[in-house]
């Protein structure tokens, strides 16, 4: 017998993305598909969603909002949109205010703490390579490196980093190592 997947995405993450960032942008058909997939945007959202439901809902939104984009770019934009949505929640605003005050160099060292508010399974290990240059290991990217690339890009932007680049160094399924760099002032 197969054990159920216990990986959960917390409701605050779903609220940030689907209610704050995407709510009015989603078509009526997408809203119906989301309801059928397990996320009813016309009701109070659940405290958490299993990873399978979350991924189905992301796919529905992705196809609805960016049907003509290459899949990798659509996932990158979804990552950006997730961060925009989360930072529109009270907890997200507080987190980003603190990150902006710390600046990108110190904020990156705290990314694991911020990500722990989103789910119960992703762990991050930042490793400083030098000023404005970090390696970031993420334990489980659910096979979506471009989604996480977008999350990291938007997060860096909101910390005040300019001229940054985020790239995949290597994939170690289910983990991935990203390189984040930006010119130091």
UniProtKB/TrEMBL annotation:
Domain of life, per lineage: Bacteria
Would you tell me the protein name for this molecule? DUF2378 family protein
